Amino acid sequence: MRPGGCPSGPALRRRLQTAAVIQWVFSFLGLGPLCLVLFALTLVSRAWLVALGYAAWLFWDRETPRAGGRRNAWVRNWPVWTHFRDYFPISLVKTAELCPSRNYLFAFHPHGVLVAGAFANFCTEATGFSRLFPGLRPYLLMLPCWFRLPLFRDYIMSGGLVSSDKASASHVLGQAGGGQVAVIAVGGPAEALEARPAALTLHLRNRMGFIKLALEHGASLVPVFSFGENDLYDQVPNPRGSGLRRVQDWLLRRLGLAFPLFHAHGLLPFRSPVTTVVGAPLPVPRTAQPSRAQVSSLHRTYVAALIRLFEEHKGRYGVPPDRHLVID
């Protein structure tokens, strides 16, 4: 602590890290609704022409989230993301070379509560994605509803977030020349309801859409496991069949959104390491109309590769030898 009470050194770094995570949590949970309110207030103010002009532009630009978005290298390299990374810390591990002449589908597990590892690794350059995987451009897929929020949609697209509907993923994987990476949190919002420290349950058994997508575009499948992703928050107990879980499942079916009642240091996550391990690619033959048997066969191959990746690396990242993935 400097004279006069100003923090310095480690204390200052910790405060910067905390501030970086606070702004990220707010962006994830509150910035979208705030942008909507600000837009509505502008619409009924003296500046209504500005809001009306922006609304017209939104209509004209409505397909952009499904057409590769509008990433911005400056935003992806903001210094705030290095403080965000160091809070936990979050790191990215490469286990195999990925040729930039091909397109890839990164299947990310587990979803966690707020997919912090996926954001840090694929929506920023804080963990060195472009250095580790030169020639590749990652696009993290996010629920389409978030891209309907004015201003917020432009902000999230700047980091490389795009809509998670099939047309969007197909646009990324269908680009000629290679170098495109569609990152999909396969377990989706449903898996967020299972996220709590030490949880290893993945919603994967009946998730076939990403497999079919890879076949249709001949995109190499890459298993990605983020060790520590589930350790960032605890949840109010919500076992399957409980009253709370029935309400959460009903909201998920109706709205397509998960509402986990999570907590750590309030809404701040625990300072717990997250290590995202990118596995070796599985070559996938391009199949315009894959049969159910082809999809099922590749799904089995993929699950085996994911389990192998987890088992090979779990000892390095604090998972006991007797703990294994639960494929649900």
TrEMBL record:
Keyword set includes Lipid metabolism: yes
Pfam families in the record: DAGAT (PF03982)
EC nos: 2.3.1.-
Family: Belongs to the diacylglycerol acyltransferase family.
Domain of life: Eukaryota
Segments crossing the lipid bilayer: 21-39
Protein name: Acyltransferase
